[in-house]
Amino acid sequence: MDTQIEEVDTSVAVLSLTGISKSYSGVAALTDVSFDVLPGEVHALLGENGAGKSTLMNVASGTVQPDDGSIRVNGEQIDSLSPALAARLGIAIVHQHPAVLPDMSILENLQLALPASVFQGKGPIDEYATSLIRESGLTAHVGDRVDSLSVAQKHLLEITKALALDPKVLVLDEPTAPLGQDSVDLLFGRVREAVARGTAVVYITHRMAEVRQLADRVTVLRDGKLRGVAEVDEVTDDELLTMIVGRQMESTFPPKYTAADGDEINLVLDGISGDGFVDVSAAVKRGEILGIAGVVGNGQSELLRGIAGLDSFTGRIVVGGTEMTSSQLLEEAAYLPADRHTEGLMMSLTVRENAAVAALKRFKRWALVSNKLEVDTVGATLDSLEVKAASMDSVVSSLSGGNQQKVVMARALLSQPSIVVADEPTQGVDVGARLEIYRILREVSASGIPVVVASSDAKELEGLCDQVVVMSRGNAVGTLLGDDITETRIVQSAVTSTAHTANVQLASERVARSTPFRRFIQGDYAPSALLVGVILVLGAFIFSQNVRYLSDFNIFSVLMLVSALGFIALGQTISLLIGGIDLSVGPLAGFLVVVGSFFVNDDKPLGVVGLGILLMFVLAIATGLINGSLIRFGKFTAIAATLTLYIALQGLSFLLRDSPGGYIAAGYTAVLTTRVGPVPVIFIVLIAFTVVLELLLRKRKWGWRLRATGSDEEAARRVGVNIDRTVVFAYMATSALAFCGALVLMTQIGVGDPAQGVSYTLSSITAVVLGGTSLLGGRGTFVGSLLGSILLIQVLNATTFLGLTQMWQYIFQGVLILVAAVFYSVARRRRKTLV
Q: Where, by residue number, does the polypeptide cross the bilayer (predicted)?
């Protein structure tokens, strides 16, 4: 049943969307939708997952361009809205999945997302940023890396960014889904303050109670179409639900388990303790669902991870009469994480692959997986859960949040688990999908498989669970049964507890207690500090074996080699920071030397020499432009694009010279080998380049955009980073620095040799990885890459002074890059536990 569409004077609307339509691959996401929001009102936007709510707001924020329709802001027609323009017009959006950059600090996230004017005249930036996050309820340090924050804290950071703009239009997309009641109350207070100042608020939610508590008007979308607009006070919940799902809703929760004498106990938690929880006990009968309640961050998630075997615990867990260890639970339990994007799904894989990955043994025929059996079985499970997708081979990221959660559940069911553990299973899920999830959990429990559910929604636990354990500061402060399971009793038990556990440190407290030392260990400069120590120790050892190691001649020779490699490694760092790689830097350096060998000769006038160097620079920039264009516009992978240039440049080198020739001018070599004592001037120039690039990386938006692109491309796009331009310019900068390396390499080779240069590709990657730059992008330093270059050359030089064969050079290189990759990978995982 559709309801009336309320007529509103759109001429006074601060934001007006008229006749908006948007399709993806021929599938309509929005069809002729009109929406407006007035100054000083909260306008709720409701609908099932996939109804088009987020798409409509992405249009309003400039992230998505509509196929048809018009956008007006303050009555002015906007022809092409971008995220940057939307921000300038005063439109801020808090996304359901926060647009935060995990590899950057809280402060850097704020500086990248907010215009510089926000910080001007406000005193020290870090102090003002701290005041901003405190106003939103975020207690972390502004220097903390965002990937160390909990899901709730990331949402608070997203809210901070939006409110800091003092926006004219504030879009809140499921802002309370992961938040505790204290944070929700604080957010609602901030929203009411903004509304009182005249801000127009668009509030997207699945929670009817929040609509009643906060909103003035409500708009409902279904299947991408407008179904109704009304004053909140003039429409009932039943009418809203009917508009949302297109049918009359029955009971929200399925019937609870009916106890009978003699029912067996199929789950026992006997005094289990772990990191974040202590001495939790429960005995659950077959058919019952165990709920875990409490204010967010009080040990619920840690407890569920222990029950699922993901974290170690002490005490006993008995499932179906069998006591299980952590490793056994890890094999037998199906875990549904709260953060489905990070922990629950592989977003680049298909729906079928995500659902089947935990059950591949079921589909095995002989030594291979039967594709037919997999497709039939997975398809039947997806159909039973009513997953809405174009096909099983659709990328899972294209599904709505509710359907993504159903895919996570399908994987759990296909794995035929002994126990199901669900952390916030309906977070960000619409009312229709919630009913399906409740039904599935109840059916799983009735089949004899224990089900444990943690939820921040006390009403959900009241309607779904047969037994509820309430957590506070890691303690089980109460167990509610039967009629005692009410929203009031659950909240009362959680907020009135006085429990303290000195030996349990919760995740929220660990973040709040971060220290300068811990932030340094988590930061990008820790690998650099380690390299300095290794370089000094290795140097001392070599000197103890051969005193000529510190002779002026050897210092000069080593630093000249470092200079050539260092410039190329700085360029490689840029490519890796954006999540790419450049395999062409070695052949490019060699090719440029060959080109220079035709111009930089003793018999050539100065003008010709200058022209040759200019040509080398132009060719380098052109190479970077081709690499970046192939990747961004040709849709090549970084490896495929740069490998293509690798082969092409190497071939061109041999076309120009099939053997070494064209001696480099002695005057040019003399200039490049100028020294101050034993230190080459070009090495000092390299240090200057490193310092300037490092400052740009940390203090300017150029560097933030590089790291943001490599950290999370989609989040970077949503905060206004032009990804295409950033990537293309990054590869051009990489090639420009390879040109600098080629200038030094010319003095070392002394002749145009087409076979030289190729080895610098692997050497540059080795140096950069040694310096701590992540192969996944987003993290790294130019200082580390310089130190990595020094260590690599030092190791190669050591083989000479220690009387080792050339074979040891390759062994040492391989060992160095292996140790670095393993060490930094392990350290990166452990840093999260130190926060």
A: 525-543, 549-570, 606-626, 638-656, 676-697, 727-751, 757-776, 783-804, 810-827
